[in-house]
């Protein structure tokens, strides 16, 4: 199934609650929550209290993208804060298999993410264990960047790998996705689309609806 996951990193934090409600009303299936620790990536974004405060506002899937070093340390806390899907970076884990196992033991959806410079082969060993692979289309750390064209080839490559292994793993693309390039990334094999700036500039509801109608074609 194709799903839209608007990234609240690009939202107006002074009215975060009503913006989350808008996403829900417009039909976005997921809410993408970017967690940054100032170590794995240079910036610091938000944490448990923010997640907990918006959790009662929607039943949509909380798609939590952990851009933090050694995420294994915080899995229990993110699940308690309302995560339905936890994605960890392959580059951030000393023991990726164990980290994924820990997420699955909590009974939620498990994802693994790779940066633009990380080859898809690096996650071949855990592909059978995860429900989703997040392919970064920009270097993680900031919203509002331009999609790096070479990353689309990685999505094709990953899709081929998934098919060859007989899996049905979801592919999420994150970073620089707009209405102009979403067709290309979906043709390459992505079925979960993160969009931040493209959703939160202008009319949020209208932007969500435009993405959704494009994605259902
Ligand atoms: O993970 C991220 C940044 O590291 C964000 O999810 C991503 O940048 C989305 O924002 P935009 O659509 O504005 O690029
Ligand atoms: Co993200």
Automatic annotation (TrEMBL):
Pathway(s) this gene product operates in, as recorded in its UniProt entry: Carbohydrate degradation
Keyword rRNA processing: no
Keyword NAD assigned: no
Residues engaged in binding a divalent metal cation: 32, 34, 65, 174
Cofactor(s), names only, from the UniProt record: a divalent metal cation; Co(2+); Zn(2+); Fe(2+)
Taxonomic superkingdom: Bacteria
GO CC aspect terms: cytoplasm
Catalytic activity: D-ribulose 5-phosphate = D-xylulose 5-phosphate
Enzymatic class: isomerase
Protein EC: 5.1.3.1
Family statement: Belongs to the ribulose-phosphate 3-epimerase family.
NCBIfam families in UniProt: PRK05581.1-4 (NF004076), rpe (TIGR01163)
PANTHER family per the UniProt record, alphabetical: RIBULOSE-5-PHOSPHATE-3-EPIMERASE (PTHR11749)
Function: Catalyzes the reversible epimerization of D-ribulose 5-phosphate to D-xylulose 5-phosphate.
Name of protein: Ribulose-phosphate 3-epimerase
Taxonomic placement: Bacteria, Bacillati, Bacillota, Clostridia, Lachnospirales
């Amino acid at each position: 199934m194709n799903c839209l996951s608007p990234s609240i990193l690009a939202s107006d934090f002074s009215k975060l609650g009503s913006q989350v409600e808008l996403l829900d009303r417009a039909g976005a299936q997921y809410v993408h929550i970017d967690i940054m620790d100032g170590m794995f990536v240079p910036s610091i974004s938000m944490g448990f209290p923010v997640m907990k405060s918006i959790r009662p506002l929607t039943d949509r899937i909380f798609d939590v993208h952990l851009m933090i070093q050694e995420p294994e340390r915080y899995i229990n806390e993110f699940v308690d804060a309302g995560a339905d899907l936890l994605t960890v970076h392959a580059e951030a884990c000393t023991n990726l298999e164990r980290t994924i196992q820990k997420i699955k033991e909590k009974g939620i959806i498990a994802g693994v993410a790779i940066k633009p410079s990380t080859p898809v082969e690096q996650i071949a060993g855990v592909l059978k264990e995860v429900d989703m692979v997040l392919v970064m289309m920009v270097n993680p750390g900031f919203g509002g960047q331009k999609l790096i064209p070479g990353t689309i080839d990685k999505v094709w490559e990953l899709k081929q790998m998934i098919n060859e292994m007989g899996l049905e793993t979801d592919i999420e693309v994150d970073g620089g996705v707009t209405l102009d390039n979403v067709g290309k990334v979906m043709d390459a094999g992505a079925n979960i689309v993160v969009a931040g700036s493209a959703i939160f500039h202008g009319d949020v509801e209208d932007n969500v609806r435009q993405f959704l109608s494009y994605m259902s074609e």
